[in-house]
Amino acid sequence: xxxxxxxxxxxxxxxxxxxxxxxxxxxxxxxxxxxxxxxxxxxxxxxxxxxxxxxxxxxxxxxxxxxxxxxxxxxxxxxxxxxxxxxxxxxxxxxxxxxxxxxxxxxxxxxxxxxxxxxxxxxxxxxxxxxxxxxxxxxxxxxxxxxxxxxxxxxxxxxxxxxxxxxxxxxxxxxxxxxxxxxxxxxxxxxxxxxxxxxxxxxxxxxxxxxxxxxxxxxxxxxxxxxxxxxxxxxxxxxxxxxxxxxxxxxxxxxxxxxxxxxxxxxxxxxxxxxxxxxxxxxxxxxxxxxxxxxxxxxxxxxxxxxxxxxxxxxxxxxxxxxxxxxxxxxxxxxxxxxxxxxxxxxxxxxxxxxxxxxxxxxxxxxxxxxxxxxxxxxxxxxxxxxxxxxxxxxxxxxxxxxxxxxxxxxxxxxxxxxxxxxxx
Length: 425
Hints:
Structural class: alpha/beta
Helix content: 25-40%
Shape: globular
């Protein structure tokens, strides 16, 4: 795939027709993208939109761009520069959906870094993009797209995919983490936090399980693999144990059944480190389903379970925005996505971090009130409140700690049309 894209990129460079790219959201992820796109002859970064103009200017400096693009707060002005590919990297779900819709209506391909927006309304955005004959794609380098790549590879080889997911640092108590307590879990001092300019809400989302839930929902919606019935279990598992652990429970593993997503922890329940942990990586488990293929697994040194039928493969790391140019080139030059939702398979619902009283205003992802749990999509049943909509709405009744917040538990809920259509509401 990338060979064809690079050939076309070289042609763009030699003929003076660079691929025009615009970025919405100049945070850390966006800055990493800029740093690599700026190295590619045949790519022109035409505009950057961010609510904070100073942050966008700083991103340009940090990325070492030799030519300064337009900097604006206005996405409409960004689109007036006629980009071919728009990268949405804000992390705000409702805004991300609106920006993607604007880009699609403008005839632009969309690379969606904003997984929160994808999980909330991605299936509808992908449908709109297909109707407009443009590409809607997950961002390569982020773990969901890398997991999708492993799943696609396995299926293209003819293997049955048993499980897929990523690693993270997890303990059960992390679900109660808040921006006030998060730094102790990471071992950061106040001085380190101040010097690094770290975002407490972002780090809380990673720690309390919300980000893992969102990413696994994105993978489920793109691949058809399903989440556990009651949310991620985060079993401790080293890279060398994937083939033994990430298989159905009936065969000695931890999955409810074959064909699931799950996140593995780099910590044992007592807080000690897992040997050969996969905290920064992604994995897939596949089945041989024949004596001949099982023998091939052994002959070529794959890590298998005791039966030899299941094999685990993994990638030990990911480089987030440094790898996202792969998606930009794939979408803009050869019309392919590096992962995209096919339907509404999984949802991420808000769960109370503590006892919440009637009238409490929810503060969304990475906050003090709720965390996200991935569950199988069930549009016909009583709906859980999507974590992407659990911000700035007040509870009409009390919700106990650990309970799912329902859509009918809140007042003032506003649902974008793309969200309703994605979920069949």
